[in-house]
Amino acid sequence: MLRLSDGTDIPGRAVVVATGARYRKLDANRLEEFESRGVYYAATELEARSCAGSPVVVAGGGNSAGQAALFLANAGSAVTIVIRGPDLAANMSRYLVDRIEADKRIVVRRSTRIMALDGDQTLTGVTGVRISGPGREETLAATALFSFIGAEPASEWLSGFAALDDHGFVLTDRSLGREHLGDRWEGLGRSPLPFETSHPGLFAVGDVRSGSTKRVAAAVGEGSAAVSSVHAYLAFDRRA
User: Which CATH superfamily, name and number, covers 25-147?
Assistant: First the structure.
């Protein structure tokens, strides 16, 4: 049973969760003004082509930020990575850190916070300030700002019906351990189906799912593939 915000109850033998995630946004002046006109939350071929040969800034110190920086550098952009912490390796895999540090096209600004965006019709620069020390401001030339500071999954409404990872994303199939599968699974005689959560008959796809590739095409593919699992579950349910 699903309960909607207006109090309506909707019964269902299977549910597919595809509620996505909300990308965290930088607390920077004029950010919203440049969204879709220089501020991006993914680095694809389209964005890489549009800013090839021009300087860009990547905000974030995780693997997604590192992969984006290398991708954009290979596409011909001079890349500046801005992180608030002092150590790039704190949240990024060592192999990415090594590649970034060896790439002369990439500069890392540590202990720096992005404060404002500059430009007229298009983005021309990003203003950052040192968190430690005297707090010196510096404007970095940039035709694009790629923000990879994390996302918050829309999973709070599940009310404990599905096991989540440490960041609130929904665990499915092979990501589920014995500790996630309670008494309800003992009599089923099977393991979770692809995209099935810790609650039988509840499936999760797309950005809300733990371990998913946070891309539209990947979410669409997962949604299509999950239909097969739903049919398999309904077949099990009928036999039961």
Answer: FAD/NAD(P)-binding domain (3.50.50.60)
